[in-house]
Each structure stands twice: as C-alpha cells, then as structure tokens.
Amino acid sequence: MHDASIYRELKRQFMEELLASIVPFWEKHSPDMDYGGYFSCLDRDGAVFDTDKFLWMQGRELWCFSYLYNNVEHRKEWLGLARLGAEFLRQYAFASNGDCWFSVDREGKPLVVPYNIFTDCFCAAGFAEYARASGETWPLKEAERLWYRIQNRKEKPKGIWTKQISDNRPIQTMAMPMIQLWLADVFHGILPDSEIEAIVAASVQQIMTCHANKKRMLLFERVFRDGSHPQGMDGRLLSPGHTLETLWLTLYALRKTGMNNKNKDLLNEYLDTIAKIAKNTIKIGWDEKYGGIYYYRDSENKPLEKLEADMKLWWVHVEAMCATLLLYRMTFDEFFWDWFVKIKDWSWSNFRDPSYGEWFGYLDRQGQVANSLKGGKWKGMFHIPRALLICSEILDELYAVSNLNSAVKSANQNSTF
Question: Which is nearest to 240 in space by CA: 219, 260, 254?
C-alpha cells in the first residue's frame, strides 16, 4: 500500500481532467440544438466536420450525460443534454423490426441498415441510465425491450448481414460476452438480480474457458467454441486494449454480483489467471522503444494484416489504466501499480490536448498525432469519461483502505501490554 495522499491526489487529477477538459468539450461542441441528438464528428477545436449521426455514439453520449447526472452531480444541464439524445433516439433510432439503425443523417433519416448489435447495446445502456436520471417510464421500457432483443440476437449478432460462412469456420468473438458484462452492470437494479448474475456467469465462463489460453496465459479475440484456434491470422490475433478492457470488466462484474452467490467462487477461481493474463498482455503490448500500447499484436510475432497495428489509440490506454488499477486494488501486486502509473503518465503526456481540451484519439507508433479529430465515427464521449470515473472510484477504495491500515498500525503502536 502507498500513502493515502497519493490516491487522493490522483483522484483530484482524474476528476479535474474529466470536469475541466473532457466534459466541457462535449457540452460545448456536440449538442445539435436544432435537430436533437449529438454531433460526434468533431475536429481538434470542436468544429463539426460531418453531421451524420452514428447511433452507437448517440447511445454512448446519452449514457455518459445520464451517468454524470446520476453519479457525479445533479446538474440540470447534464439532464437536459441527456434528454436531447434520448428524445432523438426515441424518434429516429429504430427500424420497423425494432433494431437500431447504424447511422442516420442530421435530421434522423436512416442511412445504414441495423446490422450492428453493438449499436443496440449502447442505445439500451443509454436508455437505462437515462431512465434512472429522469424517472420516466418510456426509456425504461425501451431499455428492457432492447435488452431482451439483444439476448435473442446475440448468437448471430449481425443476422442476415453476417459475411462469415459459419458452417465452414464457426468463429466466435470476444466482443459479445465482454459487452454483456458492461450491460449487466448498467442494468443492475433494473432487471432481477438472478438474471444479471446468470448473464455475468455465462459471459465470464465463455471468456475464461474459450478465449483464455491457460497454457500461454493470453486472451484471444477469435476462437472456436471449444477454445481451439482457427488457422492463420484470425487464430493468432491479440488486441491488448480489448483484452485489458475485458479483464477489468470481468473482475468488476464478478465483484458486484459475487457478494452472495456462486459468482464469488468464480472470482476466486479466476483472479490469479486474470492477473497472469494481464501481466503477459502488458508485456506483449507495450512498445519498449517508443512507449505506449500497440493496437494489435500477433501471438507468434508473424505479420499482421492490420495496417493500424502499430498505432497508439486513446481507448486502449484508458482501459489499460482501469485494468491495472483494479488489479492492484484486488491483489496489491506492485507490478500493477507500477504499470498503472507508467500507462497513466504516457497517456497524459501524449493524448491530452491542453490547447482545446479533450484527447486526441489516434497516434502513430512514435506517439505523434496521426489524426486531429476529437470525435468521429468510432471515437466519442465514452471511454475516457468512463475510465476516469472508474479509476476515481477505485482510488477512493484505496484511499479508504490505506487510511484504515494507518489507523490500525497507529493503534497497535500506541497499545500497551
């Protein structure tokens, strides 16, 4: 354990970054006050460079403003911005079958078919969190409807738009069980505890028995249902950021649902394995020459067909911060504390934009800005604020534990026998 003041100072930095840089950027530049919803395609200075609306970005931003209102402060402007997104989605998000369009134009006319289940996942999360903030019943009903629709679709997420011929190569990816873990947290208290606990247990089992390779202590993106690997690039693919995000979401979900049921046993069973996988992932993912975490790696150091593999992305680093800090909280292994500090410092030095606020999203291998955008089709108001809030929560825990340890130590020193 470290001195409690270290945890308090880091939390101060994280909350200052959130409330003085990240959130103000989106408050100022993202709302579309004429047509509703949010602009996500924002240049370095916040200028809008594309007015199309990608609905998973709409769902993420709705979740963010609602979560800030529910968990940081009841600011009426946050609730108002959440309502702006919720009403836009209520009116324009859904195709005739109830699934969410992938994108619409500024006024809400659909542009891309509802092929991506993750759009529905983020819209469901947004409606659920907004229901808590507003107290309205309609977003709760939409959230629950989407939740059950997702459960029905998840075995074949892209439906008729699936390109893969699964009869010949039935690959399953890690993204679905991972997002189920986050959704389970968002829907905690909305759906019955038994239903949430079952989703968490099933998602963890898929991740830890299929995607986790216990011999190599690595987490693979694409596997067969029995945990074996497809031949070639698919079977060797590692995504360090996605692995670390999945690991912390696994631990976070098991902690929350494991107080009084069998998920506590799963947490005890898998904690050591998760820690070992995280250590190997960090070692493989870290760029020893330039610093930062690679986007993709090949598990056998063979060529990657992904041309962006050497890039350094914003979300990879903030999810790595969550993973290392949570693992330190749960193990008190200094390896994780040291890496948390190292990743945090590199991220603070390279991604932040002190001139205009927010973070750049895409750096080249050397850590130089490769694209000036602050938001786009894939980057929006989500990973950074979520990570800053999760890390702040964990730092509060560490502060409390450190103070308790100090009090016990002082009492022992002052006791007489």
Answer: 219
pLDDT at residue 167 in the model: 84
Residue 130, pLDDT score: 98
What's the CATH fold of domain 1-160?
Glycosyltransferase (1.50.10)
Query: What's the pLDDT at 105?
Result: 98
Distances, alpha carbon 1 to alpha carbons 9, 12, 333, in Å: 15, 19, 9
Residue type, 154: K
The segment(s) of the chain belonging to CATH 1.50.10.10 are 1-160, 172-350
Token output for 385 = 């604020």
Give the count of beta carbons closer than 10 Å to the beta carbon of residue 194: 10
CA gap 239, 295 in Å, rounded? 6
Distance of alpha carbon 191 from alpha carbon 222, whole angstroms: 30
Cα–Cα distance, 352 to 339 (Å, whole number): 19
Query: Angle 81-93-60 (CA atoms, 0-180°, nearest 5)?
Result: 45
- 91: number of Cβ within 10 Å: 11
Cα(88)–Cα(38) distance, integer angstroms: 9
Helices (H), 308-382: 314-331, 334-350
Q: Which of 247, 260, 250, 252 is nearest to 193 (CA)?
A: 260
CA distances to 81, 182, 186, 199, 316 from 179, in Å: 25, 5, 11, 11, 16
- Positions in the chain whose pLDDT score sits under 70: 259-260, 406-417
DSSP per residue, 80-99: HHHHHHHHHHHHHSB-TTSP
Contact 340, 334 (CB under 8 A): no
Decide: 373 and 43 in contact? Cβ < 8 Å. yes
Q: Which residue has the tokens 């056998």?
A: 300
pTM: predicted TM-score of the whole model, two decimal places: 0.95
- The reported pLDDT for the residue numbered 405 is 74
**Domain spanning 172-350: CATH 3.30.2350.10:** no
**Among the listed residues 382, 357, 361, 383, the one whose alpha carbon sits nearest the alpha carbon of residue 373:** 361
* The two structure tokens encoding residue 13: 């930095």
Question: For residue 311, what are its two tokens?
Answer: 């890039």
358 contacts: CB under 8 Å, gap ≥ 6: 21, 22, 25, 26, 374, 375, 384
- 159-191 burial: b if 16+ Cβ within 10 Å, else e: eeeeeeeeeeeeebbbbbbbbbbbbbbbbbebb
Contacts of 338 (CB under 8 A, 6+ apart): none
Which amino acid, one-letter code, is at 17?
A: E
